Amino acid sequence: MLGASRKAYEGRIAAETQNWKWSWDFLLGKQMSYKRLGILGMGRIGRAVAKRAKAFNMEIHYHNRSKLSPDLEDGAIYHKDLKSLLEKSEFLSINCPATPETKNLINKETLSYLEDNTVIGNAARGDVVDDDAMVEALKNGKVFAYGLDVYNGEPKIHPEYLKLKNIFLLPHLGSATKRTRWDMAYRATKNLEEFFSGKKPQDKVN
Known about the structure:
Layout: H1 2-5, H2 8-17, E1 36-40, H3 44-53, E2 59-63, H4 70-73, E3 77-78, H5 82-88, E4 91-94, H6 108-111, E5 118-122, H7 131-140, E6 143-148, E7 167-169, H8 178-196
Parallel strand pairs: 1-2, 1-4, 2-3, 4-5, 5-6, 6-7
């Protein structure tokens, strides 16, 4: 969301081509501080996003399958339905799991609930978003900028995304640190140990 809202991609192009000239309105982005952040999916990752967003003094709103306990909410405002969340979001962070129910959950209809010039970040899964609808929203100003680390049909990327400047792309590297990859390997091994010892794995897939 930071890279998208502050026009990092456009800034990189300007720096590389060495043809930029500073002015008061040069690459004006959107400020995150003191804005309303909607979090779609308030699980472990969604809560981690909320914790970091508080450093920007953002007001946290969320939509989840169920309302969290007050200690897990930590002051965040619960929205029972998605429409209510989107109508309140100046920034939107997509952190829900990919399921048949969430496929294309962000589509032409749900994007219309947003106020104009919303910034969206997607670190969940590509198939939560209808790419054609998102491209249209990026072109018509409904979405100010889109930052994403996940895609439909990775490593292929929707070709229209590559033509847009108000987009910040990363190649699914959210877990790309030694510590995180080590933790992932340890967790997978721990699940196997629990399964073969007759216990219920921590991350059982139904």
